[in-house]
């Protein structure tokens, strides 16, 4: 077995990275910050996939590679597998994690909950902001998935969907 | 009788771009060895695209003996990430298990080298640590079976 990494350190590093890029380096350019964070994830995924596929035979098709991401790759990263995998058999895969580790400690500002009916204008803003901040934390894992798959010879686009925390779905669209 | 010896190793990227090539001979035959490595790339492609015809086990990373020449044997290995490893040896009755073991250690060294955050994917591997590690692996090749 290789070296181990403290989980809380990784959590803090991720939070710090996102806040540095969003609030300091590219304070007024969220798209640019998102792209930079995704690029870091891409490199991480690229390198990890090299390591984690070392002892296994080559994948014969896309589904096998996706399954590898869902099972072995996810287990290495998050000590659990993806909970649900859906596909339309036309190059789109939805990977759902019911308790995504990097969102497990994310909380929405309580003031924004329950008050949304009484004050439409003011209550909508913080909730929106929280969702935006959460989604910023998802560019990194999206990049990891994209990096891993593209290193395995599968160019794709990955986006994340958070409808109810801490569940999270990653949508992988393979480029034909 | 030549000793069990690896004369050349190479790492080739997924677009057949050379990432690392190193010969281990005293003689001035680097060009010849590079030529042998170059030729072997076609054999790798053929093995991978027609796995049935060549009879190699399906999708195994170790591709086995690619082709023998008069003085050398050339072995290949293809990772999941489509990176090719080629090794040229002067030992004409080398054991498969030794080569497999060599490739496994070589692959591990490669993974460590490309995990360096300063390494640019797709560029040549310039790490001195990697070069040292590879030459250690090359030197120890076949020693275990000799003893």
TrEMBL record, chain B:
InterPro entries: Longin-like_dom_sf, Sedlin, TRAPPC, TRAPPC2L
Glycoprotein as UniProt keyword: no
SUPFAM superfamilies documented for this protein: SNARE-like
One BP annotation, GO: endoplasmic reticulum to Golgi vesicle-mediated transport
Record's subunit section: Part of the multisubunit transport protein particle (TRAPP) complex.
Record-stated family: Belongs to the TRAPP small subunits family. Sedlin subfamily.
Protein name: Trafficking protein particle complex subunit
């Amino acid at each position: 077995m290789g070296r181990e990494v403290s989980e809380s350190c990784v959590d803090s590093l991720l939070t710090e990275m996102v806040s540095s890029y969003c609030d300091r380096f590219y304070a007024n350019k969220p798209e640019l910050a998102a792209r930079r964070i995704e690029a870091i994830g891409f490199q991480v995924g690229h390198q990890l996939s090299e390591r984690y596929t070392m002892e296994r035979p080559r994948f014969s098709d896309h589904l096998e590679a996706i399954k590898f991401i869902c099972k072995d790759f996810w287990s290495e990263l998050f000590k659990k597998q993806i909970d649900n995998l859906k596909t339309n058999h036309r190059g789109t895969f939805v990977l759902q994690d019911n308790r995504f580790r990097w969102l497990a400690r994310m909380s929405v500002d309580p003031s924004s909950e329950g008050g949304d009916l009484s004050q439409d204008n003011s209550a909508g803003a913080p909730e929106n902001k929280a969702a935006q901040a959460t989604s910023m934390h998802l560019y990194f894992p999206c990049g990891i998935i994209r990096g891993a798959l593209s290193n395995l010879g599968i160019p794709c686009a990955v986006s994340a969907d958070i409808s109810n925390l801490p569940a999270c779905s990653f949508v992988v669209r393979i480029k034909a | 009788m030549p000793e069990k010896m690896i004369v050349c190793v190479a790492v080739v990227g997924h677009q057949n771009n050379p990432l690392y090539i190193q010969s281990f001979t005293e003689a001035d035959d680097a060009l010849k060895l590079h030529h042998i490595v170059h030729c072997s790339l076609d054999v790798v492609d053929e093995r991978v695209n027609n796995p049935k015809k060549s009879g190699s086990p399906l999708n195994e990373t170790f591709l086995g003996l690619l082709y023998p020449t008069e003085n050398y044997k050339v072995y290949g290995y293809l990772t999941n990430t489509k990176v090719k490893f080629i090794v040229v040896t002067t030992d004409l009755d080398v054991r498969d298990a030794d080569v497999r073991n060599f490739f496994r250690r070589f692959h591990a060294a490669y993974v460590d080298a490309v995990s360096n955050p300063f390494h640019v994917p797709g560029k040549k591997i310039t790490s001195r640590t990697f070069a040292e590690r590879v030459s250690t692996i090359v030197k120890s090749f076949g020693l275990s079976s000799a003893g």
